[in-house]
Design brief:
Length: about 200
């Protein structure tokens, strides 16, 4: 069981999610009840609450029907160069607030929303196809690699030569809903102080 402090776990989670950038979002199919996944790229996470993520999405796709029937989602991130991974369980919310869309919008979004040359569907922040999905994390499970020292490097090299798996150099951690809520409250307090 991990004894890592909440602040360190949140910081490591931020570093992982920011460094991976693409995840698989899993929802439940509205027609069959089966789990379905698709690649999604979240907006850059915040330091204080890195597991609560925003996504731009085309609101004409099936994932919107799926979220209306069952808002429970899983986000999975994987970093092949280190073997680190993140699994976020949460609740997805469809957000059509144009001011929030404009706040998070950047020109790279246009690649996913081609201009239909009708004056409305142009891939800009007011394109009616564009909605946000906000995933509020309920729990997080992830693995993080510590600094590779000479012993860890030796075990990895030995594994390559002998074919035997090296000793595990990843630490698994959980961030429970109470820790996530505490991070949200701390972030809200910090924002109110700044204002």
């Amino acid at each position: 069981m991990s004894t890592t402090k909440s602040g360190k776990k949140i910081e490591d989670l931020y570093r992982l999610i920011e460094g991976i950038r693409v995840c698989m979002m899993t929802t439940r199919c509205a027609d069959t009840g089966r789990l379905v996944s698709r690649a999604m790229c979240p907006r850059t996470p915040t330091h204080a609450t890195p597991a609560d993520l925003w996504f731009f999405a085309n609101n004409t796709t099936h994932k919107f029907d799926e979220l209306q029937i069952d808002p429970n989602v899983n986000l999975s991130f994987y970093k092949p160069t280190s073997g680190e991974w993140v699994s976020v369980s949460g609740v997805g919310e469809i957000v059509n607030n144009r001011s929030k869309i404009r706040e998070l919008y950047s020109d790279d979004i246009k690649a996913w929303f081609p201009d239909l040359a009708d004056g409305t569907h142009n891939g800009g922040p007011d394109d009616p196809r564009i909605s946000l999905i906000f995933v509020k994390a309920t729990t997080v499970h992830y693995s993080v690699r510590g600094t590779l020292g000479p012993i860890e490097i030796w075990h990895l090299a030995k594994g390559v030569i002998t074919g035997e798996p090296p000793h595990e150099t990843l630490s698994e951690r959980n961030i429970e809903s109470e820790e996530l809520q505490n991070a949200r409250q701390l972030s809200a307090m910090n924002e109110s102080i700044v204002e």
